[in-house]
Specification:
Number of strands: 9
Order of helices and strands: EHEEHEEHHHEHEHEEH
CATH topology: Rossmann fold
Bound molecules: adenosine-5'-diphosphate, magnesium ion
Number of helices: 8
Structural class: alpha/beta
């Protein structure tokens, strides 16, 4: 069964072109109209996510992976095309998207947990497990504003891992935390997969994609250039990278 259909999705951003390096240039620049150029982050991307699969999304930095995930989760609207979701999609929310830096970890878990569809009772029951998973019990009552970026990422992963209903969406997952945290993520990931959950995983690391995904897509400049078994996609990705270096 198809859980998510992404149909001809395009997204562009407007990027300021005028560089202002000094304060003087900046002040004079304010008198001039600002110039922007259009950056096509995604260009007519189509694919399907099937029930129970682990789908990897690969591509170099800036190829559009995170933008694609945000559109898929409904955080950004696409300019063109559409996304059809037939299941609950749980993203890892970045700091800034929904989190409140003036509240402590416990209150933020209530906030984000309810955004992700958990009831207050469910959140209360999972609180110790979530803080323990993130290794943040000691900092439970510290304002998020005083968290390091590593601490807030661990909290974001811990909430999403506990809140997932059908589809879990992970962006560069094994890039945060120390070895112990990564190990816990890996175990939780394997449990979720074994329970039949669907997982979408963005990574630029070929080993992560081959060991955690069945199938993968390769994005380049906002387009899907290849789709197939994870190993083939990872090999192709590595060969395009080395080709670029030797050019
Ligand atoms: N909110 C935004 N505003 C302007 N440009 C953006 C925004 N988000 C992403 N981009 C640009 O879109 C391109 C794709 O970004 P992204 O999806 O983050 O790539 P990836 O995750 O593959 O590294 C990049 O050039 C990035 O600078
Ligand atoms: Mg990214």
């Amino acid at each position: 069964m198809t859980l998510i259909t992404v149909d001809a999705v395009s997204k562009a951003f407007w990027i300021p072109t005028v560089r202002r390096d000094t304060i003087r240039e900046h002040l004079f620049g304010m008198l001039q109209p600002r110039r922007f150029h259009r950056l096509q982050a995604l260009d007519s991307v189509s694919f399907e996510v099937r029930d129970g699969e682990t789908l990897g999304i690969m591509g170099r930095n800036g190829s559009g992976k995170s933008t694609l995930l945000k559109i898929l989760c409904g955080i950004y609207p696409p300019d063109r095309g559409r996304v059809e979701r037939r299941a609950a999609v749980t993203p890892i929310l970045d700091l800034g998207v929904g989190w409140n830096p003036e509240l402590d970890a416990v209150d933020n878990v209530f906030l984000i947990g309810s955004v992700m569809g958990l009831s207050l009772g469910e959140i209360r029951r999972s609180m110790d497990a979530i803080l323990g998973f993130a290794e943040l019990q000691e900092f439970a009552n510290l304002k998020l504003a005083h968290y390091s970026s590593g601490m807030s990422s661990r909290l974001a992963y811990a909430v999403a891992f506990h809140a997932v209903r059908d589809v879990l969406v992970l962006d560069e997952i094994f890039a945060v935390g120390d070895a112990g945290f990564r190990q816990r993520c890996e175990e939780r990931y394997r449990d979720l997969h074994a329970q039949g959950h669907t997982v979408l995983l963005v990574s630029h690391d070929p080993r992560t994609v081959t060991s955690f995904c069945d199938r993968a897509l390769l994005l380049d400049h906002g387009r899907i250039v290849m789709e197939g078994p994870a190993r083939e996609i990872a090999d192709r990705y590595v060969s395009t990278l080395t080709k670029r270096i030797s050019d």
